[in-house]
Amino acid sequence: MGNGADENKTAFGEHAATTAKAAESLPTREKRKIVINLMSGALAGAVAKTFVAPLDRTKIIFQVSSNRFSAKEVVKLIYRTYLKEGFFSLWRGNSATMVRVVPYAAIQFCAHEQYKQVLGTYCGTFGRPLPPLPRLLAGSLAGITATIMTYPLDTVRARMAVTPKEMYSNIVHVFIRTSRDEGVKTLYSGFNPTILGVIPYAGLSFFTYETCKSFHSEYTGRPQPYPHERMVFGACAGLIGQSASYPLDVVRRRMQTAGVKSQRYDTILGTMRQIIAHEGLIKGLYKGLSLNFLKGPVAVGISFTTFDLTQILLHRLQSPGYPER
After folding, report:
1. How many structural domains comprise the chain?
2. Which top-rank group of organisms is this from (predicted)?
3. Which of 14, 39, 93, 127 has its CA 20 to 30 A from that of 57?
């Protein structure tokens, strides 16, 4: 009788320990997933933005000026910048971009994974691709979350991109001088058009990429696209997302850099009216879009591909049997 009781106690103790371990492992796994998503997103943003930084800076300069945009003028501007300030000046403002884009991309990609999980549970499709509307919603919510948390860094980056080195010596100097001379509120200039723009941009970008992967899996029978296929899917996502939100991107840049350009832009509609009145609808609100057709798809393609591959690699380092997504 004693031995039986001891065995029962031992079995009960082992069962309790196993149950406790299982209960503890779930939040641990969730925390690990979040960390991996944050790291993968940060690397994705850094690699993509650094690759296209010279084109990005050139686009911003045209967006905030009234100069005529053309491919010839783009080449001239890049060449003049190279002659006057040196090769690495083409990456001026990239340090500010990294300070902003690393947390932005980390938060956006991680938030997207979390929103997908929440919406998947709500829709009853957990572990499977989301239906179209929740898929679009997950991307938009991810973009909004990241924008709210990192916006002042975007203003700093825009100002460094359009000013000479003598005006701002570093990122901290931009924060201090802007806050002192124009007020802290200035760091949030252009916030409203940014939010309005990020809803279709992030929503359609993530929606397109996830939809392409879903169609690929359905029609090829392969659970995973090859890296070059991911690049193509990401390029399509970037092309569609940026086309839907580009005018608001121009408005945002004008509002962010108004102080250093001695101009005043108070509202979204007011800024749009000024741009259209002085530069026209297409040449004003869509200035630099053709350059973005080159830069945007490449950047988004690199970003999505880097995130997916880094995420898979980190999961496999943690769990060797982890399947590809």
Report:
1. 2
2. Eukaryota
3. 39
- Judge whether 41 and 202 are in contact, CB under 8 Å: no
**Same domain, residue pair 223 and 285:** yes
User: Are both 194 and 183 inside the same structural domain?
Assistant: no
* Distance between CA atoms of residues 13 and 16, nearest Å: 5
**Is residue 163 within 8 Å of 173, Cβ to Cβ?**
no
CA nearest neighbour of 107 among 188, 40, 189: 40
Encode pLDDT of 239-286 as tens digits: 999 888 888 888 887 887 776 555 677 788 888 888 898 888 888 888
Residues 6+ apart with CB under 8 A from 209: 233, 234, 236, 237, 304
Which amino acid type is present at position 89? S
The residue segments making up the domain with residue 103 are: 92-188
- Note the helical H segments in the chain: 2-51, 53-63, 71-85, 94-123, 132-162, 171-182, 191-220, 227-256, 268-279, 289-318
Half-sphere exposure of 71 (CA within 13 A, CB side): 3
pLDDT digits (tens, 9 = 90+) for 148-176: 998 888 888 777 777 777 677 777 888 88
